[in-house]
Amino acid sequence: MDKFTIGMMATGAGVILIALRIQIGVALGIVSFFGIATILGWRPAWGMVTAIPFNFVGDWNLTAIPMFLLMGYIAFSAGLTAGLFQAMRVMLSWLPGGLAIASVAACAFLSAASGSSVAVSAAMARIATPEMLKYKYDPGLAAGVIASAGTLGSMIPPSLLMVLYGYFADVSIAKLFMAGFIPGIMSAFMFAAMIIIRVKLDPTLAPPVTEEFKPEERRAALADVWPLPILIISVLVGIFVGYFTPTEGAAVGAALAIVLAAIKGTLSWRVLQEASLSALSGTASIFMVVIGTVLLGKMMALTGVPEVISKWLLGMGGDQLTVVLMVVVLYLILGCFLDSISILLLTMPIIMPIARAVGADLIWFGIILVKLLEIGLVTPPVGLNVYVMKSALGSLIPLSTIFRGIAWFVVADMITLTLIVAFPWLALVLPSLMK
User: Fold this and answer.
1) How far is Cα of residue 123 from the mean position of the Cα atoms in its chain?
2) What is the radius of gyration, based on Cα positions, of the chain?
3) Diameter over CA atoms, the chain
4) How many independent structural domains does the chain possess?
5) Residue whose C-alpha is closest to residue 378's, from 220, 225, 187
């Protein structure tokens, strides 16, 4: 049996195991081990299985993942984000669909503090959606806006997906963070514009909320969230101007979150314990998938499958736009069945050689992938953010209503994606200013 056939059979076996609901990291590890053993023998296979996970987990660059998670969980547990929706509501409720737009703005700020789309959606689902329902907002809009805007955590830095992409694509994580800033803000503005247009066309979707806030109420609302801008700006500006690397910035962010919580008077041993355990659990889950994917990449390199597919595509006249369109279709399909980290890591061993072969800018290409993964977080039948919303809301809103509500936001995301593909400078202008 030739190596290419072994690689294709292993890929097919991995897909079957994942379809059988075996944990993705375990499934990929199993097929990779047996694939390597078939090609090189049992001893080399055991050697790779024991050495690769140790070397990977010990990589300094990936310590950014637990540190960014810790920063986000401390911010949530210590209540640094608790008044964010109210602050955005004070400033934006006068707009058509103002509470929904305030939710988008709050999700954008939370994304910059967290880096986790799931955490943002879960937090905002309990805060903002009941408030919108109270003011007779359409249930689909009230749930759909949170599920969709929660995905901004993947694009607005710091982003765990960008850390993983940068590590495996061997590109600057700091430049990826800066590249995601304009597309992330643009996504938020696109959501807000879509809400305004829809509410203008159909005012019953979001009846006007006539709220008047006294100056002291406005000041109190804004004063309640002062630690969050300090945390976000300190980390991102420090990375942008080169004071510290993204890995160091993650540690600075976690330490600063602790200091800010102490200053605000919300720090306790319970907060530290909850945040630390959540960060450890999240890191372990991510690393399980990544280790399986690293082994898969080693196995794929031995079989030559990525090179064969790359040569086949290029032989058909594939250019940069063709590759991007191919990836768009692939990610939209996979997004219906897998979570974003699994999709990214599962496909990188195959698509990265192709992207390099057609001369694609890997920073720009990474932003396209992250945008596609954002869309995959809300597309049925396995839109992870939608199920997070359902879990947080219980029986308050049916699952079908949430999926109905995200449809218009997916359209807005596709427009944003088209602009990023058509105008690469949207992603590349800020990285070009870095040292």
Assistant:
1) 15
2) 22
3) 77
4) 1
5) 187
pLDDT tens-digit series, residues 284-318: 887 887 788 778 777 877 777 766 766 766 666 56
Measured CA to CA, the distance from residue 400 to residue 411 in angstroms comes to 18
Domain range spanning residue 377?
Answer: 3-432
First to last CA, the chain: 50
98-150, pLDDT tens digit by residue? 888 988 988 888 877 776 677 777 777 777 888 888 888 898 898 888 888 88
Q: What 3-state DSSP class applies to 398? A: coil
Characterise 306 by phi-psi region: left (phi > 0), alpha (psi -120 to 50), beta (else): alpha
Measured in residues, the chain has a length of 435
Distance CA 153, CA 147 (A): 11
- 3-class DSSP state for residue 380? coil
pTM higher than the cut 0.90: no
Residues sharing a CB contact under 8 Å with residue 370, sequence separation 6 or more, in sequence order: 154, 155, 159, 161, 162, 165, 180
Q: Which two tokens stand for residue 274?
A: 């909850």
Count the alpha carbons within 13 Å of 180 in the hemisphere toward its beta carbon.
34
Query: What's the rounded Cα separation, in Å, for the pair 100 and 419?
Result: 24
Query: Which residue, 132, 214, 9, 93, is CA-closest to 389?
Result: 132
Q: What is the DSSP letter of 115?
A: -
Whether the CA torsion 195, 199, 200, 201 is positive or negative: it is: positive
